[in-house]
Amino acid sequence: MKIIQLCSIVNIYLILFVVSLIDAKLQCDEVSRAFKKKGSVDYNVAKKCLESFPFNAEYATKNIDAALHTLSHYYVFFDRAKEKSPSGFTYQPVDLERELTSLRNKFLNQIMTFLYTALRNPLFKLKDGHTRINNICYHHFIYDQKLSLYSVITTDKKGKKKQVFNDKLDPSNNDCEVTEIEGKPALQTIIDFASDRIAYSKDLGVRFNMALAPSLNVFSQQFTLRGDLPETSSIKYNLSCPKNKSSTIERKWSVTYEDKFIFAFDNFCFNINNITALSFNDNFASSGKVTKSAPSDIFETLKSSIAKNFYLLDDGKIKVGVAIINEERQDLIDALKDGFQKLKRKGAKKLILDMSNNAGGDISLPLFLTSLLLSSKQPNSFPTDIIIQNFTVSKIEKNFNSKGPNDYDLYSPNFYLSFPSGNPFKNASEFIGSRKKRTSNLYLNALSPNEEKLLNNTSSFSWTSDDIIILTNGFCASACAVLTLFFSEVHKVKTIAVGGLLDTQMSFSTFPGGEITSSNLIMEFAGDNFTNLPVANALLLTIRESYDMDINGTVKDVLEYSYKPANYRLYYDEKNARDPSLLWLEAAKILNNKA
Ligand SMILES: *[C@@H]1O[C@H](CO)[C@@H](O)[C@H](O)[C@H]1NC(C)=O
Ligand SMILES: *[C@@H]1O[C@H](CO)[C@@H](O)[C@H](O)[C@H]1NC(C)=O
Ligand SMILES: *[C@@H]1O[C@H](CO)[C@@H](O)[C@H](O)[C@H]1NC(C)=O
Ligand SMILES: *[C@@H]1O[C@H](CO)[C@@H](O)[C@H](O)[C@H]1NC(C)=O
Ligand SMILES: *[C@@H]1O[C@H](CO)[C@@H](O)[C@H](O)[C@H]1NC(C)=O
Ligand SMILES: *[C@@H]1O[C@H](CO)[C@@H](O)[C@H](O)[C@H]1NC(C)=O
Ligand SMILES: *[C@@H]1O[C@H](CO)[C@@H](O)[C@H](O)[C@H]1NC(C)=O
Ligand SMILES: *[C@@H]1O[C@H](CO)[C@@H](O)[C@H](O)[C@H]1NC(C)=O
Ligand SMILES: *[C@@H]1O[C@H](CO)[C@@H](O)[C@H](O)[C@H]1NC(C)=O
Q: What does the UniProt keyword field contain (predicted)?
């Protein structure tokens, strides 16, 4: 009975398949024309186009095989992801092997024929912002409601939580409260969305912030600005406005496409031969997603150019410096040093580090900033570890003898320092360790020669751990997370988290991971001969893990799975949701009052 049914599905499918081959270019014609003129298209037009993309079961299963090979060999949280979430975090355990194998069967039997979202979902469940699949055809659409939602805490009687609505298109809606979304209570709708659909934090409060504004970054405002095809063509909001009666608005999605990928969309997304070609990855090396030159983070290419800003708060009694650091880039080290020196010259006695909306970046920057602000003895970064396959051992030995500390290779011991001594590795086997368990070969990041030179030529600052406070909206990811966690765990710098869910503790950082790379790079580094990597679905994954450590250098749990709520909490209101400097004043109060 079951087999018969399967066959009939296959038959139906095959007919559709022929149709869709002819149709894809037709269905996408309007989309293509609009995008070329940097215009937008209607939701239904975009949906038809996306659904017409050709499917090929062999290609789909190859994608899964490649993803499973990469993840099972190099993903540092492959086993840990199967465990229950630690208290404070909110996510479900994920058995990647089981999920991907089941997906593979569905593709093979053509029970499922829409590759793009299907492959992405099991990875999104990990709530590890470093690990995901991006399809070059599918994931560059932008779905925009053209409005921003804020969550503020009103000051009335019981401090009841409310959504405040800010409409970019129609300013008369500003400060209306959103009571319902699609007929359901607004707040719960956002919480559910953050819970199920946002992948970039294990902390639900942080995901809640990411669903909403304020935002400078690509991962914020995700409820109204999406990268995956929404289920419906519009969203209905019930509003309750201060100077007006209740009203309902229905907002259609405006669909556009990321500029720099339009060439790809036009040239091969509708063509099955192009999509299944496994050799075209070279064509996309120029898209700048992942480069091999440095251990940098992919987010670098996505970020706004706002780099750093320094302010002085002066109430006549005590001067407090504010440093906004929203990215971690090597080429910012001079500017950062200059900024802090300026604050010192202007007499800042204390320091607020506003690290909100920081998507991370260069993994040696945390080390640089720690050394710059809090001159400390080694080790001055968290220890890390990586998975070593048998066939990688000989590569490590070769790298030890041939590669210098500037010559980046993930598996070059010369690029790191041994833990806990902070000395260079004496030989390859010291780096490799016993391999009996993951933590047998811990090592530290090393400062780059440029950073070292700059530090050698900078006189130290007088700020102590007690003079500094870190402020974030929870979206302080990757390298930013490693930095703030190191300040907090090892140097006992206090932290403030803004927003999130009322009366629920919240993390000040998210997905510290250790290091991200792509499947093709990790295999090249490791000396893995696995071929058939379909790079149209670019897999990015965490390949190094950082460990929590206390002030005495005692190694604790994996950082990614350690719940670290902030010491203090602030909430958004109508004013500070739009003007972050009001949050600095609150932070200065906390900084000046604390023991
Ligand atoms: C929300 O709007 C819909 C449509 O106008 C209306 O039927 C519903 O009663 C509204 N809900 C509330 C709580 O006002
Ligand atoms: C009140 O709502 C109506 C209908 O939604 C709208 O046309 C009008 O501009 C609003 N007035 C104010 C003062 O917000
Ligand atoms: C995709 O296929 C079309 C038509 O066969 C061809 O002209 C184009 O060069 C191909 N593009 C790539 C990137 O392979
Ligand atoms: C790797 O090498 C060790 C020691 O030689 C051996 O015990 C182990 O089975 C090998 N692992 C694999 C997956 O081949
Ligand atoms: C990969 O291929 C090379 C060249 O054929 C071979 O020397 C090496 O042993 C292979 N490595 C593995 C892990 O199979
Ligand atoms: C590697 O260095 C360690 C630490 O100095 C030393 O104990 C070990 O004997 C060395 N191993 C080899 C193979 O040289
Ligand atoms: C920085 O100073 C240290 C200690 O004085 C020295 O060992 C190191 O070589 C210097 N580095 C650079 C790049 O000048
Ligand atoms: C140290 O910094 C000063 C001021 O920025 C600069 O003039 C000097 O050349 C630097 N010295 C070295 C050795 O880099
Ligand atoms: C670190 O070591 C000191 C001195 O041995 C001890 O007093 C302190 O409790 C230790 N701290 C932690 C967090 O273990």
A: Signal
Atom of ligand 2 nearest to the CA of 247: 5
Instruction: Give CA separation, 113 vs 14, 266, 534, in Å.
Output: 11, 22, 17
Closest C-alpha among 514, 296, 515, 294 to residue 405: 294
Is the Cβ–Cβ distance between 579 and 566 less than 8 Å?
Answer: no
Mean pLDDT, residues 434-446 taken together? 86
Q: What lines the ligand 1 site, CB under 6 Å?
A: 179-180, 238, 246, 248
Span 541-577, pLDDT tens digits: 999 999 999 888 899 999 999 999 999 999 988 788 8
- Domains in the chain with CATH codes: 2-86+95-132+263-269 (no CATH), 142-257 (2.30.42.10), 297-381+448-509+564-593 (3.90.226.10), 384-444 (no CATH)
pLDDT at site 329: 74
Q: Atom 8, ligand 6: which residue's CA is nearest?
A: 430
Q: Residue 260 and residue 242: Cα distance in Å, rounded?
A: 42
Q: Whose CA is closest to atom 6 on ligand 5?
A: 529
pLDDT of residue 270: 63
Residue 391 Cα to ligand 4 middle (Å): 9
Q: What is the residue with the minimal CA distance to atom 14 of ligand 9?
A: 552
User: What is the distance between the alpha carbons of residues 490 and 466, in angstroms, rounded to a whole number?
Assistant: 13
Q: Check residue 296 and give its pLDDT.
A: 27
pLDDT bracket for residue 345 (50, 70, 90)? very high
CB 566 within 8 A of CB 507: yes
* pLDDT score recorded for residue 595: 43
Identify the residues whose C-beta falls under 6 Å from ligand 5: 391, 529
Rounded to the nearest whole angstrom, what is the distance from the C-alpha of residue 15 to the centroid of ligand 3?
Answer: 24
Peptide bond into 413 cis (omega under 30): no
Name the pLDDT band for 402 (thresholds 50, 70, 90).
Answer: very high
The token pair that represents 415 in the structure block: 């690029």
pTM over 0.90, yes/no = no
